[in-house]
Design a protein that fits this description.
heterodimer, A: mainly alpha, 14 helices, 3 strands, globular, B: alpha+beta, Penicillin-binding protein 2a (Domain 2), Beta-lactamase, 2 domains, five-stranded mixed β-sheet, 26 helices, 19 strands, elongated
C-alpha cells in the first residue's frame, strides 16, 4: 500500500493501515466470542447481508458503472464482500446437523442452491460478475465438504462447459470483451488488452529480486491500472521479484494451512466445515486474483485478500479469521 | 446416540477425505502459479524488462543545427542566427487567460494572430510547449524579459534559425528553407530520420539539393515518462551534430554586381571559370528575399511574388528556355569549319535579305553587309552569311557540334531538380517528337539561333567557356568540396577536330567586341588586362511581320512582352582567358545595347578579383 502512494504516506496508505489495525483488533475480539455464538447467528447473518444487498440494489452508491456500495457514513460498505463469509457460516450451520444420508436429498440440494443463487443474483445485477462467482465458489466449497455426491459436481461441471457458449452469448459486451481479451490480449493493446499486458510487463520486468521497494516503474508511472486494488500483486512482484512473490505465496500457504489445521483439530462439525470451506475459499480468492494478474484467467474484479485496498474485503477476511481463531480458542466446544 | 455418532464418524471420514482431495488440488494449483511466476519473472525477464523500458522511456528530438553555405572567400551566405522565441507551457501558467492577454498587449499581436495562438493551444496537451512567437525582434524580446515578473510560466527562448544575410542576391542559387511538409518527409530519408515538428528544410536550390549534408542530426533528450506521457525526469542528453558547411565557388561581390545590373529587369547572369567549371556567379532576376520563407511567408508577400509578371519564382538561369539568337553563331561557324563546309576565305554577299526555297530571309541590317567573310560576318553578326553556311552544313551536323558543347543537356545533371535541358533540334528529333519531316527553311533559321532551338543561360555560358578554353570539355560545379570527389574521365578531352578552327572562332569573337563595326564594340575594354571577346544576340520572341519590318520600331515603342530578348556571351581576358559569362535580359531589346555593357562592368570586377581568388585557391587550379 505504501508503494502505491509513491512512497509517501498518503490517503491509501494511512487508510489501509488504519483499517488493518481496526480489523485486527476486531478479529481478536471475535476470536474470544464462543464458536457457539457464531453458529447461532448463522442464518440471521445471512439474512441481514441479503437485506443489505437488497438495500444496495435499491439505494446503493454507484461508482464506475456499478452499484456496489452502501453509505454507512463512516465507511462505504460493500455487502457482496461480506456475503463471501456469511454464506459459508450459513451453509455450514445448515449442514451441521444434517445426517449424511440426507445431504444428497433433492430437498437439501435445492435449499442450498437457493441459498447460493439468491445473493449471487443480487450481486450480478449490480453488476459484479467477479464477486458473485466468488460467492458461488464459497458456497460450493461448503457443499463439497458437506459431502454432496461427487456426481453432482461432475454433472455441474459438464453442464457448465456445455452451457458456456450460451452463457457467453448472454454476457454484457464488456464482459465478453474481457473473455476475448484474455484469449488474445495483443489484439487491442491500448484498449481492452491494456490491463493484462501492462500487468504481465510489470511482473515480468520484476525479475528474480525485483526492482526494489518503491522502484516499480510500471506502477509508479501509472502504466498499471488499479494498482492498489486488484493489481496489488503485480505491484508487489514488480518491486520484490520472484523471491518476494514466492515468500508471499508461502505466507499465504501457511495461513491457509493453519486454517485447515485448526479445522482438523476442532471437535464441532460446524467449526470444521467452516474452517475447511473458508480455507478453500481464501485459497480460491488468492489464486484467482494471482492467475488473473499473471494472465492465466480473464480479468474479473477480485481483490487479493488482506493485501488489496478495500475495507469491506478486509472486514470480511478478518471476520473469517476471527471465526477461525474462535474455533481454535473454543476447539473443544461441542455444538448440539 | 450410537446411530448419530456413527453418522458423525461417517461425516468426519467424508469431510477429511474431501479435505485431502482439496489439499492436493491446492498444492497443484500453487505449483501452477509458481511456475507461471517463474516463467514470467525469470525466464522471460529480459523481454518484459525491455517492454517496461519502452513504456517508461521516451525520446525527444530537438531540431538539428543546419550546416551553412559559405562563398569562395568564406563569407557566410546562408547561416544561422539566434532567433528570439516565446514559449508558454499552459500547465505551468496559473491564470492562462491573464497571461495570454498580457502577452498580446506586449507583443502588439493582431486579433488574427491571437486567435491562431489560442487555436494552437487547444490542439496541444497542457504540458506541451506552445510557441507563441518564433521570431521576435530584440525590442519585443527585451520587453517581454522586463515584464517577466508578472508573466508566470512564460519562457523567452533563444533558438537557432536560418538567415540569408545577402537577401535576394542568392535566392535562386541557394534556395530557402521552410517548414517541412509531408512530401519532404516522405521523399527524403534524412528528413524522415531527423524530423521534429517545426523542422525547416530546403525547398528549392542548393538548400534542397544538399539537404542530406546540411541537415545535421538531432539532439536527443531521453525522459522517463508516465502513462500519460508527462515527463518525470531527464535520463540522458545526447548532443547532435551540426550539418556540414558547404563552401561554394561563388564570389559574393560578382554575384552582388550581377544582381545590381539586372535590377528591375528580368533575366539571368552567370559567370564561370573556363578551366575548372567553377561557377563564379549565377543570378536570376527578379529575385526575392528568401528570409520571408523561413518563418512562413505571409499571404500578401506570397501573392506579390507569385503574381509578378517578371516571374521571380522561376530560376531563369536553369529553367529559362531561350532561343540563343546570334550567340549560337560561333558554334555554327565552328561546326562549319570542322565539317569542312568552308574556310576563312569563303564569302557571301549580303543584300539585306535573301531568297531561299521560295521564302525570304532577312538580315538584321536592312541595307545588307555587302561581301562578308567569316570574320566579318561574326563581327557584324551578319545573318545572311549564317543562313548560307547553315544551309550548306545541315541541321544534323550542327546539332552534333551543339551537343558536344553542352547544349540540349542538363549542365548540372541532377543537382537541381528544376534544371531544363533546352532543345537542340535535328531531323530525327522532329520526326519523333512532331511526326513531321524536317524543312530546309528550319535549318536556315537554326543557323541564327531561332526556330526550334532552345538553350538555357547556363548552357550558353558553358558553351562560351569551352570555346574560350580552347575547346576542351569542362564540368561546371558550384560546391568546392564536391569537386574533389567527382573528376570525370573525359574532363579536358578536346571537343574539336582541329584546334585551328577554335582559334578562328575565338579571333572572330575578338573582332566582334574589339574592332570597329563589331556589334559590341562600344562595350569593349582596351586595356589588355580586361580585354574580352564576345558575341551579342537578340532573340525574337515572335515572328516579325512584313508590316512591322517596314515600321522598324525602336525597342521602347514595342510592348514589353513582344520585345526581343537581349543576350551576350563572352570570355576574357582575351590573352590568357579565365572566365566566361552569359547574360540574358528578357525583352531587353538588343544584345549589343542592353546585355553587352553589363559584360564590361562584370569583366572589370571579375578580373580585378582574379588575383585574390587565385591566392585563395591553394593551388587548386591548374595554372595554364
Amino acid at each position: 500500500m505504501y508503494s502505491t502512494d509513491g512512497g509517501k504516506i498518503l490517503f491509501h496508505t494511512k487508510s489501509h493501515f488504519t483499517k488493518l489495525a481496526v480489523f485486527t483488533i476486531m478479529m481478536l475480539i471475535f476470536s474470544f466470542i464462543n464458536i457457539k455464538y457464531w453458529f447461532s447467528i448463522g442464518y440471521l447473518g445471512y439474512v441481514i447481508v441479503v437485506g443489505l444487498l437488497i438495500w444496495t440494489y435499491l439505494f446503493g452508491i454507484t461508482s464506475s458503472g456499478s452499484q456496489r456500495w452502501i453509505n454507512l457514513y463512516f465507511i462505504n460498505l460493500q455487502p457482496s464482500e461480506l456475503m463471501k463469509i456469511f454464506i459459508i457460516i450459513c451453509l455450514a450451520k445448515y449442514f451441521h446437523r444434517m445426517k449424511l444420508e440426507n445431504v444428497n436429498s433433492i430437498y437439501t440440494i435445492l435449499t442450498s442452491l437457493i441459498i447460493i443463487l439468491l445473493p449471487m443474483g443480487l450481486v450480478i445485477v449490480q453488476p459484479d460478475l467477479g464477486t458473485s462467482l466468488l460467492i458461488a465458489i464459497s458456497g460450493i466449497a461448503v457443499l463439497w465438504f458437506a459431502g454432496i455426491n461427487y456426481k453432482y459436481f461432475i454433472y455441474t461441471m459438464l453442464g457448465f462447459v456445455i452451457s458456456l457458449p450460451f452463457v457467453i452469448a448472454f454476457l454484457k459486451p464488456y464482459q465478453k470483451l474481457r473473455v476475448l481479451t484474455f484469449l488474445n490480449p495483443d489484439k487491442d493493446p491500448l484498449g481492452a488488452g491494456y490491463q493484462i499486458i501492462q500487468s504481465k510487463i510489470a511482473v515480468g520486468s520484476g525479475g528474480i529480486f525485483g526492482k526494489g521497494f518503491l522502484k516499480g516503474t510500471q506502477s509508479y508511472l501509472e502504466f498499471l491500472p488499479e494498482k492498489h486494488t486488484d493489481f496489488i500483486f503485480t505491484l508487489f512482484s514488480e518491486e520484490f521479484g520472484f523471491v518476494g512473490s514466492l515468500i508471499l505465496l508461502i505466507i499465504y500457504s501457511i495461513i491457509i494451512f493453519r486454517i485447515v489445521a485448526i479445522g482438523a483439530s476442532s471437535r464441532s462439525y460446524f467449526a470444521k466445515i467452516f474452517c475447511y470451506s473458508f480455507g478453500a475459499a481464501i485459497f480460491v480468492f488468492i489464486t484467482i486474483n494471482m492467475s488473473m494478474v499473471l494472465g492465466l484467467l480473464p480479468i474479473v474484479g477480485s481483490p487479493l485478500p488482506i493485501m488489496s485496498y478495500g475495507g469491506s474485503s478486509m472486514l470480511a477476511t478478518m471476520t473469517g479469521f476471527g471465526i477461525v481463531m474462535s474455533a481454535k480458542v473454543h476447539s473443544q466446544q461441542l455444538i448440539a | 446416540m450410537i446411530n448419530s455418532s456413527s453418522d458423525n464418524v461417517k461425516k468426519l471420514n467424508s469431510i477429511n477425505r474431501r479435505m485431502f482431495i482439496t489439499g492436493s488440488l491446492k498444492f497443484l494449483i500453487m505449483i501452477g502459479i509458481v511456475t507461471r511466476l517463474f516463467s514470467l519473472q525469470v525466464r522471460e525477464n529480459k523481454k518484459y524488462l525491455t517492454l517496461s523500458d519502452k513504456n517508461r522511456i521516451r525520446e525527444w528530438k530537438l531540431a538539428p543545427v543546419r550546416g551553412e553555405f559559405h562563398d569562395y572567400f568564406g563569407n557566410v551566405i546562408a547561416g544561422n542566427f539566434e532567433s528570439y522565441q516565446l514559449h508558454i507551457i499552459p500547465e505551468q501558467v496559473e491564470d492562462f487567460r491573464y497571461v495570454i492577454y498580457r502577452v498580446k498587449d506586449l507583443l502588439e499581436l493582431s486579433d488574427k494572430q491571437f486567435k491562431k495562438i489560442l487555436k494552437k493551444k487547444n490542439e496541444i496537451k497542457p504540458w506541451e510547449t506552445l510557441i507563441v512567437s518564433d521570431n521576435l525582434s530584440w525590442k519585443k524580446f527585451s520587453k517581454i524579459n522586463n515584464h517577466l515578473y508578472d508573466l508566470n510560466g512564460v519562457k523567452p527562448v533563444i533558438s537557432i534559425s536560418r538567415n540569408y544575410p545577402y537577401k535576394e542576391n542568392f535566392t535562386h542559387l541557394i534556395g530557402y528553407v521552410s517548414q517541412a511538409n509531408q512530401n519532404d518527409i516522405e521523399s527524403t530519408e534524412a528528413i524522415k530520420k531527423n524530423f521534429v515538428p517545426g523542422l525547416k528544410v530546403g525547398k528549392v536550390g542548393l538548400e534542397k539539393s544538399f539537404e542530406e549534408k546540411l541537415i545535421g542530426s538531432n539532439d536527443i533528450e531521453r525522459y522517463e515518462v508516465n502513462a500519460f506521457g508527462r515527463r518525470i525526469s531527464q535520463l540522458e542528453f545526447q548532443k547532435g551534430e551540426k550539418g556540414k558547411t558547404l563552401r561554394l565557388t561563388i564570389d559574393t561581390e560578382v554575384q552582388k554586381l550581377a544582381n545590381e545590373l539586372l535590377k528591375d529587369k528580368a533575366g539571368s547572369i552567370c559567370v564561370m571559370d573556363i578551366y575548372t567549371g567553377a561557377i563564379i556567379a549565377m543570378h536570376s532576376s527578379p529575385s526575392f528575399d528568401p528570409n520571408l520563407f523561413v518563418f512562413g511567408i505571409s499571404q500578401d508577400d506570397w501573392q506579390l511574388i507569385r503574381n509578378d509578371p517578371m516571374k521571380p519564382l522561376v530560376n531563369k538561369t536553369l529553367q529559362g528556355n531561350y532561343s540563343p539568337g546570334s550567340t549560337i553563331k560561333p558554334l555554327v561557324a565552328l561546326s562549319a569549319l570542322e565539317n569542312g563546309i568552308m574556310n576563312t576565305n569563303f564569302t557571301v554577299k549580303c543584300t539585306g535579305k535573301t531568297e531561299m526555297y521560295g521564302q525570304t530571309y532577312h538580315c538584321w541590317k536592312k541595307k545588307g553587309h555587302g561581301f562578308v567573310s567569316l570574320r566579318n560576318a561574326m563581327k557584324q553578326s551578319c545573318d545572311t552569311y549564317f543562313y548560307e553556311i547553315a544551309r550548306r552544313l545541315g541541321v544534323d551536323r550542327l546539332s552534333q557540334t551543339a551537343k558536344k558543347f553542352g547544349l540540349g543537356e542538363k549542365v548540372f545533371g541532377n543537382l537541381f531538380g528544376i534544371e531544363k535541358k533546352g532543345l537542340v533540334p535535328n531531323t530525327q528529333w522532329k520526326k519523333n517528337a512532331l511526326g513531321q519531316g524536317w524543312l530546309l527553311g528550319e535549318t536556315i533559321i537554326t543557323g541564327i539561333g531561332q526556330g526550334y532551338i532552345q538553350t538555357t543561360p547556363i548552357q550558353l555560358c558553358l558553351m562560351t567557356a569551352q570555346i574560350g578554353n580552347g575547346g576542351y570539355k569542362i564540368y561546371p560545379h558550384i560546391v568546392t568540396n564536391e569537386n574533389d570527389k567527382i573528376s570525370p574521365a573525359d574532363k579536358f578531352t578536346p571537343l574539336f577536330e582541329n584546334s585551328k578552327n577554335i582559334k578562328i572562332v575565338q579571333d572572330a569573337m575578338f573582332g566582334s567586341t574589339n574592332e570597329v563595326m563589331g556589334t559590341s564594340y562600344r562595350s569593349r575594354i582596351d586595356d589588355p588586362k580586361y580585354q574580352f571577346a564576345g558575341k551579342t544576340g537578340t532573340s525574337q520572341v515572335k515572328k516579325i511581320t512584313e508590316q512591322e519590318r517596314e515600321l522598324d520600331l525602336k525597342t521602347f515603342e514595342i510592348p514589353y512582352e513582344q520585345r526581343d530578348h537581349a543576350l551576350y556571351v563572352a570570355y576574357g581576358p582575351y590573352k590568357n582567358p579565365r572566365y566566361a559569362l552569359s547574360i540574358i535580359v528578357e525583352h531587353g531589346g538588343n544584345g549589343s545595347t542592353t546585355a553587352a555593357p553589363m559584360a564590361k562592368k562584370l569583366f572589370k570586377l571579375i578580373i580585378d578579383r582574379d588575383k585574390l581568388r587565385k591566392s585563395m585557391s591553394n593551388n587548386r587550379y591548374l595554372e595554364v
